[in-house]
Amino acid sequence: MKTSSSPWLTLILALTMSLLTACNGRQTEVTSPDGHIRLSFLQDDSLRMLYRVEVDGVPFILPSRLGFEERSGLNLSHDFHIEEVKHGTLDEHWSQPWGENKRHRNHYNEMAVALRDEAGTRLTLRFRLFDDGLGFRYECEAPGADSLLIVDELTEFRLAQEATSWSIPASFETYELLYRTLPLSQVETANTPITFRTSPFSSQSLTTMTSADAATEEVPKSDLSDDNHPLYASIHEAALTDYPEMTLVQTDSLAFRASLAPWPDGVKARFAEGVFKTSWRTVQITREAVGLINSSLILNLNEPCALDSTDWIRPMKYVGVWWGMHLGIESWVMGDRHGATTENAIKYIDFAERNGIEAVLFEGWNAGWENWGGSQLFDYTKPFADFDMEKIAQYAREKGVRLIGHHETGGNVVNYESQLDKSFAWYAQYGVHDVKTGYAGGLPNGHNHHGQYNVRHYRHVVETAAKYHTTINAHEPIKDTGIRRTWPNMMTREGARGMEWNAWSEGNPPEHHVLLPFTRLLGGPMDYTPGIFDILYERAKKSPDRKQWNMKDSKDCRINTTLAKQIALWVILYSPMQMASDCIENYEGHPAFQFFRDFEADCDASRALQGEPGEYVAIVRQAGEKFFLGAATNGEARTLQLPLDFLKPGVSYRATIYADASDADWVTRPLAYTITEQEVTSADTLSAYLAPGGGQAISFLPTEQ
Ligand code: NOJ
Ligand code: CA
């Protein structure tokens, strides 16, 4: 079943293309369906290609370059003549088998500018304007060329206004970096998504510039904004499947240029024959910060589902033999502290079954861990002697619990690819159809993690896994650009600093969790792995087996949130595979674990209700008749008023509220929480207190009629 064309989809209006007559010489334009965003394509005297964007008549992106440099000198940047401009409109609804939202509206106006130069090279600039932003991509055809070697992409984003921005620095190797809150004019490099709020800004934002290397200077107020209405925007990309990732490098105060992850020889993108399409360059633009989260723009710019069937793909909650290794209580390698033993596996499967948790993950189960940091030659079909795969698989089957496999590559993608089919087939014979992958380590032969070579690898893994009806949860992945629309077995991924950093570093600061939804998660789900209840590692530190695996002195390590915030993160940090990441001993008998028992990983719809990047956020998710709300704050205490108008009218719900106690504080009293119950309807408003570094989670279950 291809989800895009199945009969239960409602196509409201078919794509209608017509030849544009209003192309004004070297300039042509397109607006969003509601008319408030306007994009113009234009050319200068050298027939170089540019675009500019206005929002409600006010310049938002000033004329910015488009084009490429090619190694052999093929012209892809100037002296192009417009051959044809086609305009069209699409307004359709489509469905995902799972997701933050299962139904999406894809409504845009398109302008395809077809250009040609004297040598016959054709370049089409395809622009799509939505009410909440825009995307554009390049489609190139150079007849006669037997290869194309892109050495530079000239795409610019020359922003018209100063803004407060949130981003991580550019790196072609990792996204596991701390976010910075910076005036846009002070951002030298950034990875995407980079999110920003144009001036005017609230003075409050200045007090939250807390990330390690953030500047503390004030952002100057803009002349252009006089109506007290900032714009929120985020630059990212969509459908990155055969191209290097795009980062941004500052070229002038508010001007940024695409900077692509290179191949070892410096080429950025290579294509056999003279034909290629880039991923989409995207700019989400909304009036409210939560509008960015509630947007479907990134998914809409991806291709429809490529799989013949998707009924084998299911969201799930899971626990796993995992946190003990990061704390040093257990080990990935076989030995006294080995985590993935048959005995431990049985214990975790029993726990999952007792608590209605669909799946269990095991790391450190296969040969290769003993050489960690060396050749990284893992064997994906050879379990350690104390991990009886046959017995564990049978036990899991009997208990109705799924097993999540683990393929750590240590970065050795060549070794992994040589075993890929065999590895998925081997797992499949044991009923393992969900695999977490990992790329912790440098790639062979001078490749980097985010270049075109590895983008192709990540996609190849997803496509190969699909043949075995297997889903993927990638760690150290390529950034999420929404390819789950095309391959819905690409479930979730890491791609930011996750929970693990709290085990062996200074950890993730309180603002991190209220930045992720406005930045990293705009691309898609994240396997952050929330839910550590032993916040101060009091139980872990008592373990005689504790040996620090890496990094810092253990006395500094802890979780930098309250307990209630850990619960709220299960809702806020969306992942269709959602983990309760603590060692199961810390959940046994804990009253607050009831939230996870009630929680559904398979949600139907989501809405970000309130929030400000780096400050706070409140998100609600609906799963059938149930609703789950998560709210969280940075280091500041605050009280949110939450109208419950998202509940079904006329239905009465039992709200179970997992809140910070009035004296809770992430630094001094992180474990102080309360659980209260209340009967509510959609007409009610709840007042939610969030302690410093705290949060609140609420489950709404319909009361028996
Ligand atoms: C890094 C991953 O993010 C983490 O989840 C995993 O446990 C380790 N690598 C080992 O594979
Ligand atoms: Ca990681």
Q: Could you please describe the fold and organization of this structure?
A:
The protein is an alpha+beta fold and 705 residues long. It has three domains: 7-300, Beta-galactosidase, Chain A, domain 5 (Distorted Sandwich), CATH 2.70.98; 309-495, Alpha-Beta Barrel (TIM Barrel), CATH 3.20.20; 508-523 and 536-575 and 593-705, Aldolase class I (TIM Barrel), CATH 3.20.20.70. The chain is built from 13 helices and 37 strands. Strands 1, 7, 8, 9, 10, 13, 14, 16, 17, 21 and 22 form an eleven-stranded antiparallel β-sheet that branches. α5 packs parallel to α6 (389-399) and α7 packs parallel to α8. The longest helix has 17 residues, at 413-429. The protein is globular, with a radius of gyration of 25 Å. Residues 1-23 and 201-226 have low confidence and may be disordered. The protein binds 1-deoxynojirimycin (NOJ) and calcium ion. 1-deoxynojirimycin binds at residues 322, 363, 408, 438, 440, 475, 494, 500.
- Major sheet summary line: 11 strands, antiparallel
* Straight-line N-to-C gap: 37 Å
Shape: globular
- Rg, please? 25 Å
CATH topology of the largest domain: Beta-galactosidase, Chain A, domain 5
- CATH class of the largest domain equals Mainly Beta
Low-confidence stretches: 1-23, 201-226
| Ligands present | 1-deoxynojirimycin, calcium ion
Work out the strand percent.
Answer: 25-35%
> Mean pLDDT across all residues, rounded?
92
Describe the secondary structure blueprint for this structure.
Blueprint: E1 13-19, E2 27-31, E3 37-43, E4 49-55, E5 58-65, E6 68-70, E7 81-95, E8 103-116, E9 122-130, E10 133-141, E11 147-153, E12 156-159, E13 163-167, E14 180-183, E15 189-190, E16 194-198, H1 203-207, E17 232-238, E18 246-252, E19 255-260, E20 269-272, E21 275-277, E22 280-286, H2 289-293, H3 297-300, E23 316-321, H4 323-327, H5 342-354, E24 359-362, H6 389-399, E25 402-408, H7 413-429, E26 434-438, H8 452-467, E27 471-474, E28 490-493, H9 501-504, H10 520-523, H11 538-542, H12 563-572, E29 577-579, H13 594-598, E30 605-612, E31 616-623, E32 626-633, E33 638-643, E34 653-660, E35 673-680, E36 685-690, E37 695-702
Parallel strand pairs: 23-24, 23-29, 24-25, 25-26, 26-27, 27-28
Antiparallel strand pairs: 1-7, 2-3, 3-4, 4-5, 5-12, 6-11, 7-8, 8-9, 9-10, 10-21, 10-22, 11-20, 12-19, 13-14, 13-16, 15-18, 16-17, 17-22, 18-19, 30-31, 31-32, 32-37, 33-36, 34-35, 34-37
Helix pairs in contact: 5-6, 7-8
This protein binds 1-deoxynojirimycin and calcium ion.
